[in-house]
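haha ok so turns out i had the wrong file open the whole time. this is the CORRECT one, sorry everyone. sequence first:
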Amino acid sequence: MVEQQFKELTRNYQTALDFYNDLLKKRQSAGSLGLESQQQSEQFAYTILRVSQTSRRFRKDRLIGGGLGAGLLSPGILFLIASSDKSFHNERDVELALKLPVLVLVRRWT
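then structure:
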């Protein structure tokens, strides 16, 4: 009976030891995957940082050039819009267009 209990204890110990070793292997493999993932993310961050630092000057030049171009083109665009406007804004515009005197003027109050 003592021998049977000893075998059972030995078997339980071996099962627990196998389970522990299996968990230990899983932990080590997960740690190595985490380390590889961390190294890849650090490399990616370094690449992004390097690219952003080298292209900062070019983006600044483009931004300044775009702002200058838009500032110079704005008056020309506004002039084209104003010159293509054919609506009447006052009675003088009506008199010049029709070459007749204005008898009645109806205004909209806003």
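DSSP finds two helices and no strands in the chain.
again sry for the mixup
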